[in-house]
# Entry
Amino acid sequence: MDRSLYKIYCAGPLFNPKEREEMHEIASVLEEAGYSVFLPQRDGLEFAHFFPMLLQRKMTPQQATEILNHAIFSLDVFQITNCHGLVLNMNGRVPDEGAMVEAGIAWARKKIIVIFRNDSRSLIEGNCNPLVLGLSDFSFVTTCEDILYDLNEKISKATEDIVLSRESYFDRTAENGKQISDFLAMRRPVSDITDLVIDLFGERTCQISEDARGTYSQVNSPQ
# Structure
């Protein structure tokens, strides 16, 4: 696999030196492995750099802010849609809001997603938020080295899925959600809905648990 052909978007917090250092470390691991990387703090539009320039062009502070907001949003949406995968850094007391949006866009565009988290402060009763964790097929990694391992594995699997014309994870998830939604709309009993979710996810969950105890031990499933 020629990794230079794959572009990875790094999403995460970047509002203090420690956060920017961690994001740079993640990007460096990927680049040293041969991947092309878009790191917003380095490769995007830095608000602090362009805001004064707009003021010099006779823009009011409000106009300058609005122009930059549109520009940053547009650039980041393009970079996400133009990438092959996204690494989401969930560290922090609260996961970064912008990174959550970026990851959501990436998932909707059927991109490969790897979640990195080794900070327990954002846990909900010992677990990650399932709406976020589901973006990476309910797995996460805890070291920068494992980011690379998980990304390589997911790219290989995605390539195989394309060759074999397998249904995408996005489409399969949406179809499963539709079945659950239909049961709820029909006001089916809780027992029926329970049976449905076991039918949809039980076998696969058991398989993932078996894998986690075997060859997939480097990638962590929520406890």
